[in-house]
Amino acid sequence: MKINIHLVVNRAVQILLLYLFFTVMAESLFAPILAVFITESINGATLKTVGFALALYAIAKSIVQVPLARYLDTHDGEKDDFYVLIVGAVFSALYPFAFLFVYEKWHLYLLEIFAGVSAAFLMAAYYSLFARHVDKKSEGLEWSLFSVWGLTVSSAVGAALGGWFVDLYGFAKLFLISGAINLVIIFILPMLYPLLGGQRPKALPPFEPMPHNPTLKK
Predict the structure, then answer these.
(1) Which of 28, 122, 135, 190 is the most buried (most CB within 10 A)?
(2) pLDDT digit string (tens) for 30-67?
(3) pLDDT category, 130, cuts 50, 70, 90?
(4) Helices in the chain by DSSP H: which ranges?
(5) Would residue 212 count as lying in a domain?
(6) Domain holding 154: CATH number?
């Protein structure tokens, strides 16, 4: 018996999934081995420093993300979500580059607070946009793509490549590569703008050209 599985998701979800894959992969290049960089490269840093820095990141993200998400929910339209997404994406792209200038523990602490705020902006807007564009009767599939493709596979690819790369070229070049990937993938996000605030686009196979739809609001 032949089984035909044709995977289709709408254009907005495709863009969001592609962005998420590369931004998570870029961070995963160094995230699993970040403790090694911190303890070896920052003056007086220990594993306690790593734990405290990660706690500051989590606290900053938690304080900002929930109220920001609530604010976005209470405002009609998707343009505000889009602008917050862009701000979060730009700030998150700066995060890897900033490690090139971290030499003291307080530098690290400030950077992790900044990273937490950046992640809060990025994910509050991302979740809002993704949830609004998920296709009816494909919710399980598209949220599974979010989880498996956007978070799991991307993390695995990034971790494998990052460990190999840092052995060959060191942390400085790894941070540059991670930041560069994040900066480049931001340029896919403007493709979302014509799809916001109007009729949902027709579901399309991945990477097919988006047909002109005059009913979409600009």
Answers:
(1) 122
(2) 999 999 999 999 999 999 999 999 999 999 999 999 99
(3) very high
(4) 11-28, 34-41, 47-73, 79-98, 105-133, 139-145, 154-169, 171-186
(5) no
(6) 1.20.1250.20
